[in-house]
């Protein structure tokens, strides 16, 4: 089994419809990068004397659905509100300046602007720890 990571077109969006999370990402599985990934996996398997099959769910569904454990983006970090949603401490900007909402933070993968091409788990964890340490420092001073 291969776990592959790459840059996609970042054209998807997650949103709430009532109490349900919806994902709208037309054609995600048809992006050229996924064919390139499959070809690379086939080549690796062949070099190892193994066989490889494409994502099995793609044969069950015409939509070529994908799975992600770490959806990124949506509330990206920026210098100010005109360039992002949060600052480097996860504080949410009030407007297009550097003014922030007191006590309102975002500390998850949504603050990472785009795909990293590596598993983002440690990056998300490090950013979250940094944000929490800053919150604790503010509360104890």
Q: How would you describe what is shown here?
A:
Strand 1 and strand 2 form a beta hairpin. With 141 residues, the chain is an alpha+beta fold. It has two domains: 1-68, no CATH class; 70-141, no CATH class. The protein is built from two helices and four strands; from the N terminus they run ββαββα. The model has no long low-confidence stretch (mean pLDDT 89). The chain has helices at 32-47, 121-140; strands at residues 13-17, 20-24, 91-93, 100-105.
Structure characteristics:
single chain; 141 residues; alpha+beta; two-stranded antiparallel sheet; 4 strands; elongated
In short:
This protein is α+β, with helices and mostly antiparallel strands and 141 residues long.
Oligomer: single chain
Output mean pLDDT.
89
Poorly predicted spans: none
Tally of alpha and pi helices: 2
Give the ordered list of helices and strands: EEHEEH
Largest beta-sheet details: 2 strands, antiparallel
Percent range for β-strand residues: 5-15%
Kindly report the spatial arrangement of strands forming the biggest sheet: 1-2
Shape: elongated
Can you give the helix content as a percent range? 25-40%
Total count of strands: 4
Q: Which structural class do the helices and strands define?
A: alpha+beta
The end-to-end distance, rounded to whole angstroms, is 49 Å
């Amino acid at each position: 089994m291969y776990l592959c990571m790459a840059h996609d077109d970042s054209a998807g969006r997650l949103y709430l419809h009532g109490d349900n999370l919806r994902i709208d990402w037309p054609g995600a599985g048809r992006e050229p990068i996924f064919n390139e990934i499959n070809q690379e996996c086939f080549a690796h398997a062949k070099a190892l004397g193994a066989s490889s099959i494409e994502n099995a769910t793609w044969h069950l569904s015409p939509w070529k659905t994908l799975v992600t454990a770490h959806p990124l983006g949506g509330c990206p970090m920026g210098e100010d509100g005109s360039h992002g949603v949060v600052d480097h401490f996860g504080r949410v900007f009030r407007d297009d300046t550097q003014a922030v909402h007191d006590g309102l933070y975002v500390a998850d993968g949504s603050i990472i602007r785009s795909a990293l091409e590596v598993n983002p788990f440690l990056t998300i964890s490090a950013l979250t720890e940094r944000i929490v340490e800053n919150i604790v420092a503010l509360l104890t001073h």
